[in-house]
Design goal:
Elements (H helix, E strand, L loop, with lengths): L5 E4 L3 H12 L4 E4 L7 H5 L3 E2 L3 H7 L2 E4 L4 H8 L10 E4 L5 H13 L3 E7 L8 E9 L2 H11 L3 E7 L3 H30 L4 H27 L10 H17 L5 H18 L7 H5 L5
Parallel strand pairs: 1-2, 1-4, 2-3, 4-5, 5-6, 7-8
Antiparallel strand pairs: 6-7
Helix pairs in contact: 5-7, 9-10
């Protein structure tokens, strides 16, 4: 059985990796990028360079988008909207759940079908089955193209709502960027004391490796709305974060990040959660700050 042909639109590092993965697996690949020279190496490998966006869309039923965001999608596809009829648009660009839903409606209005994707790895993870991508949209469309999409990464179908893949992706990014920023902040304080990133690495790794245990412990309590202070107390958390703020200030490092965290903890105490677990702060996050 011949492998499905695919069009890849957008040839930044991620799009390049995706096109290469399809070529590696014997798929016929058509590519298009605003800067045409970005397709040169792929063409040498056997990809077909489309001269126009209309030609790229016309080439294959399955079209994979790898763009900065949905604004970039509209900028490229609105002039070629008539060519979307009969196409399956797998949108692996990053954006919000609401915009993914809007895009699915827009594509459907032009006779196409839209799958939202949220790739959970950098370009180096493309082509590896242990990597994963969230997908959402019509289940029958996903099932029809699952084998081809699994050339890129493993697949994790989240449901028919087009916004779900984007939502799960943004939830992951919420955790990732906050965590990595805290790591950089800790390294800045460490550096102020002559401690290098390499020297601190085993301790940073030890802290990060302990997190899954905390997540597993607190998840059922959070789902049950139980924030009892039998294991930790928010009042103690306030004292701990206050010490971080002062340690940071004493080192001459920007205190904005720990101060922001302290402010959230203090709001929790002011709301009556001093004797509850720090997980009670989820109730603070659910309310708009005054």
């Amino acid at each position: 059985m011949s492998k499905q042909a695919v069009t890849v639109i957008g040839l930044g590092p991620m799009g390049q990796a995706m096109a290469n993965a399809f070529l590696d697996n014997g798929h016929r690949v058509t590519v298009w990028n605003r800067t045409a020279s970005k397709a040169d190496e792929l063409v040498v490998r056997g990809a077909v360079r489309a001269a126009t966006i209309n030609e790229a869309l016309a080439a294959n039923e399955l079209v994979v988008l790898s763009l900065t965001d949905y604004d970039a999608m509209y900028a490229l596809l609105e002039p070629a909207a008539a060519a979307l009829s009969g196409r399956v648009l797998v949108n692996l660009s990053s954006d919000t759940p609401a915009r993914a839903r809007e895009a699915a409606t827009w594509v459907a209005g032009h006779g196409g079908r839209h799958l939202t994707g949220g790739v959970q790895v950098p370009p180096s993870g493309i082509g590896k089955p242990e990597s994963s991508t969230f997908y959402s949209g019509p289940e029958e469309v996903f099932d029809a193209h699952r084998d081809t999409l699994e050339v890129l990464t493993g697949t994790d179908y989240r449901g028919a709502d087009p916004g779900l893949a984007a939502l799960y992706y943004q939830l992951q990014m919420d955790m990732f960027w906050t965590t990595m920023l805290s790591y950089l902040h800790a390294l800045a304080v460490a550096d102020a004391h002559g401690i290098s990133a390499e020297e601190f690495l085993p301790y940073a790794t030890s802290t990060m490796s302990s997190i899954p245990g905390f997540l597993a412990f607190y998840a059922p309590r959070i789902d049950a709305g139980r924030h009892s202070g039998d294991v930790d107390r928010l009042a103690m958390g306030v004292a701990s974060v206050d010490h971080i703020v002062h340690t940071t200030a004493d080192a001459g490092i920007d205190v904005a990040l720990p101060t922001a965290i302290l402010e959230v903890f203090q709001r929790g105490v002011a709301a009556g959660h001093a004797d509850d677990s720090f997980t009670s702060l989820i109730e603070i996050f659910k309310k708009t700050a005054v």
